Amino acid sequence: MKNFVVLFVIFVFSTVAFAGKPKFLEHRYEYKLEDVLKADKYEKKDRYWEAYTGGKLVGYVLLSKDWTPQHVGYAAKHMETLVGFDTKGAITGVKIIFHAEPIVLIGLKEENYDNFIKQYMGKSILQSMSVGNEIKMDAITGATVTAVVQNAIIAESAKKVAGMAGLIKYAEQKGHKLSKKFDALGWKELMDSGGVKNILVTQEEIGQPGGKDPYIDLYYGLVAPPSIGKNVLGERTYTEVMESLKPGESAVFIFSNGPGSFKGSGFARGGVFERFNIEQDDRSYVFTDKDYKILTEVAAKGAPPLKEGGIFIIRAKDFDQSKSFKLKLIIGYRAGNEKKFKPAVSDYKLPDKFMEQ
Amino acid sequence: MSLDRRKFLKYLGMAGAAAGTSLLVSEGMKTKEKGVGPTVAEAQTAPQKHSADVKPGELDSYYGFWSGGHSGEVRILGLPSMRDLKRISVFNMDVGTGYGITNESKAMLKGKFCGDTHHVHGSYNNGVYDGKYLFVNDKLNNRVARIRCDYMEVDKILDVPNIQGMHGLFTQRAPKTEWLVCNSEFQIPVPNSNPSQPPAQYNGAHTIIDAEKMEVVCQVLMDENMDLAATDYGGRYSMTTSYNIEKGVTVSEMLGSDYDYMLVFHWDRIKKALKDGKHTMIGGVKVLDGRAGKSDLTIRIKVPKNPHGINVSPDGKYAVCSGKVAPTCTVVAIDKLEDVFNGKIKPEDCIVAQPFIGLGPLHTTFDGRGNAITSVFIDSTNVKWNVQKAIDNEKLPEEKKKNTHIVDVLDVNYQVGHIMATMAETKEADGKWLVSLNKFSKDRFLNVGPLKNECEQLIDITGDKLKLVHDSATYIEPHDCIIVRRDIIEKVVKDRFNMFEHPQAVTKSGVDRKGKKVTVKLTANAPVFGLQEVQLKKGDEVTVIVTNHDEISDLGHGFALSNYNINFVVAPFQTKSVTFTADKPGVYWAYCTNFCHALHLEMRMRFIVT
After folding, report:
1. Could you tell me the residue range of the domain that residue A103 belongs to?
2. ipTM for the assembly
């Protein structure tokens, strides 16, 4: 087994053409597997390596592009990451081997990125790892897209390998079918049923003078069950969204009121919604503007006001709508002139009444 | 004709007084006058929010598709905000997008950069827009353009022979748009090869076009001129008004006759005549003879002289010809047309009402609740009137004299041309908003010099009264518009997913030279073009092809070449090209003009001409 991999970056400049991009835009680094996990022998398995010291299995090494190439950053490119973790699931090292994130544009340096990465050392991949909670954005504050996507790459890739290696055991829960039945439900019934969930962050929670007034009052849920989707979105939008889905794709609606914004404005240029993502088991689902349809009206009777909203498509076929998932938010706000973030997590489990009995 | 204007205004006063007893002016009006809330009509028809105030982050409820008049373009507005959303270059040159500069647009325009767009109409399915195409005419160079609604870009332009003054365009409404028709307002020699032909031998032609193929199906040769056009809701007829049956070539000659015509074209008979080979080929297209006494393809309904607009009510029952020179509208029952074609009744017998409207009625639109609203140019008003009441009043001379069909009259500022209500040219007319496209703005905006903008006014028509809610300044010079419910269009509009729709899409940048012909292939990917420099020799004929490789929605790139008078914009996954002669030696920077990246200014490259 070859344990030493060296990659060279060659920019071919000529008077006429050059391949690749100027150096400040793309960064590629040499790497060795031992950069993230010290061992004397690395054995190649299917898309990851087992690391051995003195014949004893000490951990695992993986290359993220083998596992989560769909996660792309601000530059619309995957940040190729080498991750090592030990047999208990503790991260032993993380190294970025390729990225094109324009962090330099927001006054950051490569070492800021390195500092962000360093905090993963020792963190358990068996636990939740989300930006704003276990993972702090301080080192690359401002580069929220980069941080959120980079985290998704590390956490999801590592969890997938851990699952493969037997570190994580999932309760085999066979996906239930969603009920096709439609009951006309008003807003209160939708909320009471658990088909629509709420995340409320008050002004006072983020140290603002508004007291109990919402900073962000957010509602979300699955679109597909007719008794949820059709009631919330209205027949027309519901049908349009459902008809636009390819087999295996899922849709969630999110809308909010209050001065805070869950969409933010950063997605416009980068195409990535950096303020929220969905997690299910070891998988993280990040949304881009290609997965998004604006939502401007809520049809359900008695619904709270909508200031901003969207329907977001989970493209991946591995998302199971009948199983529980988390919506994770990073709520941005300003304390004086300082940019701050408050994380929020909400659990969603489709109530039985919306599934086939 | 002559009419005492004061007397007319007096009539209106009486109409107002009579309103209290009318079915049409309800309780709601009274409560509104007391200022205690919305009218009953509003409450009934608009249970949801009905406000012209579209707040930041909110979207409009309607797409408005506007012709741009002699700017040659089509515009998209959002309603009710009246925000200008997009200008679609059609028959003009647009140095912003590069339309008229790129090889792709030049191939459609064939060197003609002047245009005069009058009427935009959409493709239909069963009387409602299907969101597939928009069609627009060019009165100046006699062309029809098609806009594909998914990209909101022109995809075809058809040059129509044998006609001039292409006025009036309308699409087939049922069962779906296979044909569209357009008219010729100016009679000319057909073919136009003998300039000394006397005007008495000039002709007009009603042109039928295949909407999918964008080819002329046939033309129906006429003695009359034809301006506005309409189709019925049954897919059986096209209709038009004619104001110059005299074949006059001066104003006074055109006003010579006491009457003019509404003309109707029978589509099944046209199809049969084509099948039977009754056409002759003129100017490369099939021409049928529709002149009086020459065939059974057309009928002529006498209307007061020099009429203007023709519009069909959303229930499909009536065609309304607006009088222009006459102060009336002529209401024609469409279900009686077949009997006229079959000689069972006289053409005049299908006229069911000729109500008084005002001085200079031009165009009529509908609220879907049985009311028509007619633009009145000389009076500078919008007049709302009830169609059934006007028909009923034909048998009640006293009622007719009192103008009890008139529900409300609103002064508009100033001198209205076309008007259009939301969805009014479909069977789903919803009576929410009306736009009055006024030709003069005078004092409605800050004075911007002698050439002033137009003033388009938004009017709330949910109540009995027409309620002016917004003035909107407009650049030269929309003629007409359609207002389409958002849900019909928004599901159709999309980004480009297939880069290879353009056969020359660049995947790898490079330079190909064949003698003096040089092809420069460029990818654009923020913030770099695929090449940093290109070496050229003076006299080279250079074609630059640019493909935007950025996938992110809305991330367009520009390509501008300094001192070479070149600029165009490529949307994500789009390819455009331009050809020029490198006639100036030196170093010339090409750069991105469409803001794309924090390093947008650095997105540039050199063309070195030795």
Report:
1. 4-165
2. 0.77
